[in-house]
Amino acid sequence: MAKLFYDEDADLGVLSGKTVAVVGYGNQGSAQAQNLHDSGVEVVVGVREGGKSWERARADGLKVATVEDAAAGAEIIHLLVPDEVQSQVYEASIKPHLSEGKALGFSHGFNITFGWIKPPENIDLIMIAPKGPGFMVRQLYNEGFGVPALIAVEQDFSGNAKATALALAKAMNFTKPGVLETTFYEETTSDLFGEQVVLCGGVSELVKAGFETLVEKGYQPEVAYFECLHELKLITDLVQQGGLEFMWQMVSNTAEFGGRTRGSRIISGATKQEMRRIWDEIVSGKFAEEWRKESEGGMKFLRAEREKEKEEQIEVVGRRIRELFQTAAR
After folding, report:
1. β-pair type (179-181, 4-5)
2. Mean pLDDT over all residues of the chain?
3. What is the mean pLDDT of residues 238-257?
4. Structural contact between residues 302 and 294, judged by C-beta atoms closer than 8 angstroms
5. What is the DSSP letter of 80?
6. Helical segments of the chain, H only
């Protein structure tokens, strides 16, 4: 049974007198740094001097330093740059400043799980992974609540690593809804699997296939868009609110009968078998190596796909429909 931790399980006093260096100021970096700062934690943002992130962090009222200086002066270094550049940033700017007893934090265990980063054994190695995008991490904090999160301890040199992870989670309001304890391996592999087969890869391909099938059968693209994409949020909101069974209760009997009798024909045994193969590719490191080659090779595949999909019919129709909505709302 998963163990959850709440506000009463975490002590912000653990962070007293310590500086947290948040390295990176993108979606997660900016949200987490501001939440920590607003909770009274001593924060310094480590970014490239003079860049847009440097100016944005200063405008947000945060202390800013180069990554090297931030890492050198902090007891806790929280690395929040994208996965594909973490190892370079670590080797060049963080590793030289990881003195004994410091803590190195992540919000995704990818680089540790697949060995792209190999920290020394005389530090704490922790993870605080919010289960929500950066804008939501910040928005819910400002509303007095927070997103749920995962925490993990990979190395506990100090004997205080878990307390540090919980304190950071509390400072960002993650312990209000609750944080779940996991491992770097479990977080990384489950996250990659969920993204690839359901949340990003699976859903987008399912939506496109449904849209294309209706259009091929002669339906207006706008109608196909509404049925296969626009209404998806309505369903996922119901699922998030009360679970799958709650969703079935909220839709019509016709929709429930059709979904329960036909859904397994789409997500069939063959689909599950492919999911297992994808899981094998993740845990074996095959996907990680593919991603390393892609990122180091200039992301040619991603750049080509992004340009191609801009002109796909479902995107063109979607842009037109959203513009109509925005015009009507004015």
Report:
1. antiparallel
2. 96
3. 97
4. yes
5. -
6. 27-38, 52-59, 67-73, 83-89, 110-113, 134-142, 161-171, 184-194, 201-216, 221-225, 232-242, 244-250, 253-266, 269-284, 286-296, 300-310, 313-329
Mean of pLDDT values over 308-318:
95
| pLDDT tens string 176-186 | 999 999 999 99
Indicate the burial class of 212 (C-beta count within 10 angstroms; 0-12, 13-18, 19 or more).
middle
For residue range 71-116, list pLDDT tens digits in order. 999 999 999 999 999 999 999 999 999 999 999 999 999 999 999 9
Q: What amino acid is encoded at 293 in this protein?
A: K
Task: Give φ, ψ of 32 to 5 degrees.
Answer: -70, -40
pLDDT on residue 325: 81
The Cβ of residue 209 has, within 10 Å, a number of other Cβ atoms equal to 12
Can you tell me the distance from the alpha carbon of 147 to that of 286, in angstroms, rounded to the nearest whole number?
Answer: 31
Contacts 24+ apart (CB under 8 A), 86-94: 86/110, 86/111, 86/116, 86/117, 87/111, 87/116, 87/117, 89/23, 89/24, 90/117, 93/23, 93/46, 93/66, 93/67, 93/68, 94/23, 94/67
Catalytic residues: 108
- Rounded to whole angstroms, the Cα distance separating 197 from 85 reads 24
